[in-house]
Amino acid sequence: GAVVSQHPSWVICKSGTSVKIECRSLDFQATTMFWYRQFPKQSLMLMATSNEGSKATYEQGVEKDKFLINHASLTLSTLTVTSAHPEDSSFYICSARDRLAGNTGELFFGEGSRLTVL
Amino acid sequence: TQLLEQSPQFLSIQEGENLTVYCNSSSVFSSLQWYRQEPGEGPVLLVTVVTGGEVKKLKRLTFQFGDARKDSSLHITAAQPGDTGLYLCAGEPNTGNQFYFGTGTSLTVIP
Question: Which of A58, A94, B32, B108 is in Cβ range 3.0-4.6 Å of B12 for a Cys bridge?
Fold first, then answer.
């Protein structure tokens, strides 16, 4: 099946630094990728919808200047957490849909990135 | 923003019991999907329902999509410890291309 690779899986950083998380579709092209944040024992909260070649669409309450999203190609989207603080510690997960599959196509998920800000 | 509300939020049952998880929204969805997630991993797709009123069965799991395409349910028959996990409904509302997850139902099946 289709594969989405997310990197890094784990990252620990100091407060005030920036962290970049990559999401790659390995064997298909993804016009749209979704970025989620998940706290323990809770559901996935949509942060933003990343569209190739255009600006991301952020959900209400998500700071676009803090969570920078770039979708420069059909196979790569990046999420940069700028000036990270301990409250940004979370599990971040991306997903992508094959652009040929239409809106009911299966979403493929990355393995997730566990961010810990000290 | 979470447009999909799931109930119950937590459920702990004995092996062999039946259970139903509900997913409700005030928005219309072109399709709804159900996922199961293990800790530290990404969600795994169980089923996609597309047509209002549709019923799909996957072994001991039965999924139903509401006639108005605003709600769905997941019924598990004779639950087993291996069914333990976080169950999530998800979908794109007709009004946009965002893909939202429900609030989640954490199921624990006790042997």
Answer: B108
